[in-house]
Design goal:
The complex is a heterodimer of chains A (70) and B (260).
Chain A: H1 3-19, H2 24-42, H3 50-69
Helix pairs in contact in A: 2-3
Chain B: H1 3-34, H2 36-62, H3 66-92, H4 101-114, H5 127-154, H6 158-179, H7 188-210, H8 222-253
Helix pairs in contact in B: 1-2, 1-4, 1-5, 1-6, 1-7, 2-5, 3-5, 3-7, 3-8, 5-6, 7-8
Chain lengths: 70, 260
């Protein structure tokens, strides 16, 4: 791997760690939650309530996994 | 000052204060072991880099239309906030060690002593102390710069967010100058928990609005979202604590392999 590719990979890794952090589950939950809000809104259904529910489920899943690992 | 501005100031101040405490622990350990001159120069260079980032990114982000801005910034704040909250909840339930500034200070001091006398740099300073102080300030400050820019842009008040961050830095530096040691009495873990709740609440509000939803009561709904997030997180901490105790009890009562 060339020096430029290594630098790009390190740059990407830094931003991934910076934004996503320890567990990707939460980031996936947030993206899914916002997508669902957009779909419900497009279907003219009130959508404000769905985002907290989806991230709460993702957070519970992530905490449960961390707790099982100990 | 509106309630949004008050929350903006509190969130930026507290987030900056905890990161400033962590960076200060490294800088003070370097100052005590390797000399203050290079440690202070490294810190000043780090703060300058962060100031340039905020000055460059702030107006650029503020020029994005409000809808897409709220969606992107809401998503990022929510990911950030839930990350902070997750760590804080695991700490509160005993799954993760509480951050201890005295331990961090001792480790940093030992590492600085082991590093030995470094060759003098081009400007007569200590490159080891300069580099480590610079790195600590930039890395700890990056999250704060991000929070200042995103919160400030969304609330159309980057100067207020930057003022809160500067006030926090001033308070922490004044305390560190007085103590000349680790700021162990700052309730860092509790502050991180509160910041996690605020970031998650604002991220939820702005993210959903950016995706098209309208909250009942508009901005006033934040007064319901913030306590709801706090109660939910305390419920998770309680559940985690019970799971931990149940696990420990099961391990104690289980027969030990190899015993009679």
């Amino acid at each position: 791997m060339g020096a430029v590719a290594r630098a790009l990979a390190a740059f990407g890794r830094f931003w991934w760690d910076f934004v996503v952090g320890d567990d990707v589950t939460i980031a996936i939950g947030v993206v899914c939650g916002l997508g669902t809000v957009a779909v419900l809104h497009a279907a003219k259904v009130p959508a404000w309530w769905i985002l907290p529910i989806i991230w709460a489920v993702a957070l519970a899943w992530s905490l449960g996994r961390a707790a099982r690992r100990g | 000052m509106t309630s949004s501005e008050v929350f903006l100031f509190i969130a930026a101040f507290m987030a900056c204060a905890v990161e400033a405490v962590e960076a200060t622990t490294v800088v003070v350990a370097l100052g005590v072991t390797r000399g203050w001159r290079s440690a202070m120069r490294g810190s000043a260079a780090g703060i300058a880099v962060l100031a340039v980032l905020v000055a460059a990114l702030g107006p650029a982000i503020a020029s994005i239309p409000l809808g897409p801005l709220r969606l992107v910034v809401g998503a990022l704040l929510l990911i950030f906030g839930l990350g902070w909250l997750r760590k804080a909840m695991l700490r509160a339930a005993g799954y993760k060690a509480l951050r201890d500034e005295e331990v961090a200070f001792a480790k940093q001091r030992a590492a600085a002593e082991v590093a030995g006398a470094a060759p003098r740099g081009r400007f007569g300073g200590d490159p080891y102390a300069f580099t480590l102080a610079f790195k600590a300030v930039v890395l700890e400050g990056l999250e704060v710069a991000f929070i200042v820019v995103t919160f400030g842009a969304n609330a159309h008040d980057i100067p207020l967010a930057a003022l809160a961050a500067l006030a926090a830095i001033a308070v922490v530096v004044a305390l560190a100058a007085k103590v000349r040691g680790p700021l162990a009495r700052v309730p860092e873990n509790t502050i991180k928990y509160v910041v996690g709740i605020l970031l998650t609440s604002f991220g939820t509000f702005w993210g959903a609005e950016g995706a098209g939803a309208r909250w009942p009561g508009s901005d006033a709904s934040l007064l319901g979202i913030i306590p709801a997030v706090a109660v939910l997180s305390l419920g998770f901490v309680g559940a985690l604590g019970r799971y931990r105790v149940a696990g420990a009890t099961t391990r104690e009562s289980a027969p030990v392999r190899g015993a009679l």
